[in-house]
Write a structure and sequence with these properties.
By secondary structure, this protein is of the alpha/beta class. The protein is about 50% helix and about 10% strand.
Length: about 500
């Protein structure tokens, strides 16, 4: 096949899991971490942005039939695409922590009630749970996540405040008593008990009994929490602290498992001021990507291209069974080095280093974006009539640096600026400056005292923009390659 024609058939896949749900299973890297998650050993999946949390979430959702065969019912508590369901809480959040905890419990129990009803589980505890929720309007006739969350929020705001008492009124036409707010945040008083009031925790017990009698587990998946609460870190902290308190309470139930997918930087914000519930989070894993894992990811995406596999006569199974063969295939398609020289890195090391953030972590999202951008640059080069690299190599070394600005722009603008707008001005002041800065040069750039410059620099370290380097008494703040093109920065140390 003609080189240009072949390149136009190639794709390294979407860098966001939600955009390739149908293809994800064919080249997903099933690591030991994945196996532990799939086998139910892990409840909390942490990872940097783009590390693959949503890919695991999406793949679990896609395997709902397989999980059902294992007597596991799957519930996705968030929409996989579009505006997050939890975004509704930004405009009208619960006023107190007790309301937030109550909201989460009511919402999760409503989801469980809906699932029990849909699957025809009609044992006594299931009927009682569904009756209690239905009587309070917490289960709707047509399943809708936004409607359920809205009902739970309104109920928690109305009845889970310490200043509001549940009450009884008289129905005017029949004279019958009408009770309101019959689900309580704590154990009901004796008079409430006799009137049919139940605590939200007792409903969780009913859900556990219903599932145990039916020999089912329920997994409730919670993802996209970073998108939902991105507008305010205070709301994010309050919402997620409440969620993890609910996780602690629900962990007493063997047949109800919350599966929470969360960015590591958000987890750090939750615990930075102290969070006792953190000690209860033991069934967790942090997603990490080694050099070998990233190479395996690249090769799996290469092998997804049938035209390329056929054109090069590649044996997919043989390559995937043999890691040295994966390395060999990579360097058949890619040049040995981007910059030539004995002390220059290999192409794979160059890709990993150029996509790394200030914490020296490289996420699959940026690697995939860079590979697709490299392909686009090579196509443009051949369309101009330039000579292709010697076969079987697909990409000329000169396109790698041309591909990096698109990734730099996306990482800085779509990631850091979007999520940390309060630091955008300080970052933009580094445009055209040197890549290594001292506290003195930053104080001059930021037009503030050295102590204030130090505080800003530490914030930029925390979000992965700066890498802090020794010495401790006079540190150097180094800007990773991934941000340099967008900021037009110059290699070297700034003059004090």
């Amino acid at each position: 096949m003609d080189r240009l024609e072949l390149l136009k058939t190639i794709s390294f896949g979407a860098r966001v899991a939600e955009d390739e749900l149908n293809e994800l299973g064919s080249y997903f890297v099933e690591t030991d971490q994945w196996e532990r998650i799939y086998n139910g050993e892990i409840d909390v999946v942490k990872g940097d942005k783009g590390a693959g949390k949503s890919a695991i979430y999406s793949l679990l959702s896609a395997k709902s039939d397989e999980l059902f065969d294992k007597r596991i019912l799957l519930i996705t508590a968030e929409e996989p695409r579009g505006t997050p369901v939890f975004k509704e809480l930004v405009a009208d959040p619960p006023a107190a922590e007790a309301q937030f905890v109550g909201l989460w419990k009511l919402y999760l129990l409503s989801l469980i009630g809906e699932k029990l009803r849909d699957f025809g589980i009609k044992n006594d505890p299931a009927k009682r749970l569904i009756d209690h929720l239905s009587q309070q309007g917490l289960i709707s006739k047509s399943f809708d996540l936004r409607a359920l969350l809205s009902l739970a929020r309104q109920y928690a705001q109305r009845y889970f405040s310490p200043t509001i008492e549940t009450s009884m009124t008289i129905e005017p036409t029949t004279g019958a008593p009408v009770f309101t707010g019959k689900i309580t945040p704590g154990e009901p008083r004796a008079d409430q008990n006799s009137a049919g009031f139940v605590s939200v925790d007792s409903l969780a017990v009913l859900a556990e009994k219903a599932l145990r009698e039916a020999n089912f587990e329920i997994w409730i998946l919670l993802d996209r929490l970073d998108v939902a609460f991105a507008e305010t870190h205070d709301l994010e902290r309050n919402a997620l602290r409440a969620l993890f308190r609910v996780y602690r309470d629900f962990s007493a139930h063997d047949h109800i498992r919350l599966k929470i997918f969360l960015r590591t930087d958000i987890w750090s914000r939750i615990v930075e001021t102290g969070f006792r519930e953190a000690s209860h989070i033991t069934r967790d894993v942090t997603l990490t990507w080694s050099k070998n894992a990233l190479l395996n990811l690249i090769i799996r995406r290469v092998l997804k291209n049938s035209a390329l596999v056929a054109d090069h006569g590649i044996d997919r199974s043989a390559v995937l069974r043999n890691f040295p063969a994966q390395n060999e295939l990579f360097y058949k398609l890619f040049p040995e080095q981007v910059d030539q020289g004995a002390k220059k890195p290999s192409t794979l090391d160059w890709i990993i280093s150029r996509c790394a953030d200030g914490a020296d972590k490289t996420a699959p999202r940026e690697v995939i974006h860079l590979l697709n951008s490299i392909r686009e640059q090579e196509i443009a080069r051949l369309e101009r009539g330039e000579q292709p690299p010697q076969a079987p190599q697909l990409f000329d070394r000169q396109v790698f640096k041309l591909a990096l600005p698109a990734v730099s722009h996306a990482k800085l603008v779509s990631n850091l600026y979007a999520e940390y707008p309060d630091l955008k001005t300080n970052i933009q002041l580094l445009k055209g400056e040197k890549t290594q800065q001292s506290l003195e040069t930053l104080a001059k750039l930021f037009d503030c005292p050295i102590a204030d410059a130090g505080k800003i620099a530490e914030q930029l370290v925390a979000i992965g923009f700066f890498q802090k380097r020794a010495p401790k008494d006079n540190p150097i703040f180094w800007v990773p390659f991934i941000y340099r093109d967008e900021l037009e920065m110059v290699q070297g140390m700034a003059d004090e």
